[in-house]
Each structure stands twice: as C-alpha cells, then as structure tokens.
Amino acid sequence: MSEAYFARLLGLPFVAVMPASTSPDKIAAIEFYGGRCHLVDDPGAINAESARLARELGGHFMDQFTYAERATDWRANNNIAESIFKQMSEEPHPVPAWIVCSPGTGGTSATLGRYVRYRRYGTRILCVDPETSVFFDYYRTELSGAPDTSLTLPCGSRIEGIGRPRVEPSFIPSCVEAMLKVPDDLSLAAMRYVSQRLGRRVGGSTGTNFIGVLALAQQMQAAGESGSIVTILCDSGERYAHSYYREAWYAERGIDTVAADAAVAAAVAGGALPVLERLGS
User: Fold this and answer.
1) pLDDT digits (tens, 9 = 90+) for 60-85
2) Could you tell me where the beta strands, DSSP code E, fall in the chain?
3) Can you tell me whether residue 40 is helix, strand or coil?
4) Helices and strands in the chain, H and E counts
5) Is the backbone of residue 34 left (phi > 0), alpha (psi -120 to 50) or beta?
6) Which pLDDT score, from 0 to 100, does residue 69 have?
7) Contact in structure between 83 and 115 (CB atoms under 8 Å)
8) Is 15 helix (H, G, I), strand (E, B) or coil?
9) Neighbour-count burial for 142-152, b at 16+ CB within 10 Å, e otherwise
10) What is the DSSP code (8-state) at residue 240?
11) What is the residue-averaged pLDDT of the chain?
C-alpha cells in the first residue's frame, strides 16, 4: 500500500504481485492509491512472476523480500528499533528484556537485532513464525550448523503479512536469539483477545506476536525475572473484515475458535499456554 502511494506521488505505474488469498480490503486499498493488483495462486511463484512482469512491462522489480534488511540504516534514528527504545525511555524497565516480532520479509527482525547489538543492550529478540512458514525450519538448520536456504513449502501463510513459503534473503538468523512456532488458531484467538481489550481491531500478525509475549511472560515469571517485553501492533484489523472477522471464514477452514479462545484466555489469566515448539535460547 505504501509503495502504491509513493508511486502515485512520483507519477509511476505500480503493480503489486500478491497471493490470490490476499484480503479484498488490502486489494481495495492498493487500488485506491492507483496501484494494480496482479494475483497469483502459488505464493512461491511471486518472485518469478514479478520478474516476468517487470521484463514485459519495461519496469523494475523492487524485490522487497531481498532488500528489506538493508533498506533502513539500523545504526541511526528513524528506524523501528530506535523508536522503541525512545518510547520506552521513561518506563520502569526502559531496556526491554525481550522484543517480539514476526518475520515477513525479515527486515524488522534484522533491524532490531542489529540495533540492540550496535547499542550493546542486553535485549533479546524472539521471532514468532506462523504455522505455515519456512523461517522456523530454516532457523533449525542454521542452529545445526548446516543452513539450508533451499527449503520451501507448497503453500503460503494464512496469517497475512508474515510467514513465507521460501527462505527470504532478508531474514538473518544471527539477529534473533530464539524462534517460536505459533499455530494459526492461537494467533487468531490472540488477535481477537487483543482487539477486545483495545477496543479496536488488529490483524492476525499482532495475534502471533501476542502469543510470543505470553510465552515469554510465563518464562520470566517462572524464573523470577522482572523486566519489560515489547512487541509490535502490526496492521489494522479493519482490512480483514471479509476473513478473520467473519465466522464463516473459520468454518470453511475447519478452525476451532472456541478451544483457541479458551486457551488464550487461560494463559492471560495465569494458566499455561499449549506447548509450542521453540528453538534457541
């Protein structure tokens, strides 16, 4: 959407190549800013299709999944990491014990991890991966000493904005201390819980992040640790009125919302989360 906005300011035609499963509200927002949406059935074919269109139209493939980790100067101001620490400066625990994020391009986790190392903070980065995504499995191969960038999945993530069917170059495993695999039913239950608490709709990726926060809070409490946990409220849930906020969407996909809602509510009340697969420290 932001690319479509700036392309219009520059007087340039813009084509967004996206999975066919993208929410109609996101498609409408891109078209509102003058962009054209080119939908593909196979999420793994997005890069090849983008390159093909660029050749045929005499355009340029921006390839944000390859270049996201270098698009921002993580050492300077005006990046998400610097903003987090500035906003936390007056809090009781201004240096977070953990920052939780989820990988889409991988650029956010790279920026956060590089920034805390550059500033020599003790903050650790937890990257939470949705159910259908290859990043978690790639991280496992990285920890084993035999990183496999050829890993792929046959389908894309149901949590829009995060998760990928292939290993993206912008995901830098050394920038995160740990990864957590989050089932989609829990991500979406957490999304609904956060939306109810805030009085505003949030997206599925925010729910994935919140599951990571709950897992860390329980870990820190069990260890008798105090400190702050920071996560990111991602896109607005209003973009998912035709999917995540429609009961029929869950029924069509066989997702049990009742059990997942109960699990999140129990965890918030101090109970244990369902066992989640975790890698790293």
Assistant:
1) 999 888 888 887 777 877 789 999 99
2) 15-19, 36-40, 98-101, 124-130, 178-182, 229-231, 278-280
3) strand
4) 11, 7
5) left
6) 86
7) no
8) strand
9) beeeeeeeeee
10) G
11) 94
Q: Please give the pLDDT value at position 46.
A: 87
Residue 247 pLDDT class (50, 70, 90 cuts): very high
What's the confidence (pLDDT) of residue 75? 80
Q: What count of Cα atoms within 13 Å lies in the side-chain half-sphere of residue 88? A: 20
CATH number for 85-280 (one of 3.10.350.10, 3.40.50.1100, 3.30.420.360, 3.10.590.10): it is: 3.40.50.1100
Q: Tell me the pLDDT tens digit for each residue of 39-64.
A: 999 888 888 999 999 999 999 999 88
Domain 2-62 has CATH 3.30.1490.20: no
Name the strands in the sheet holding 98-101, side by side, starting at the edge strand that comes first in the sequence: 229-231, 98-101, 124-130, 178-182, 278-280
CB distance 263 to 274 below 8 Å: yes
Which single residue is written with the structure tokens 């270098």? 70
Its pTM stands at: 0.90
What would the two tokens of residue 258 be? 């009742």
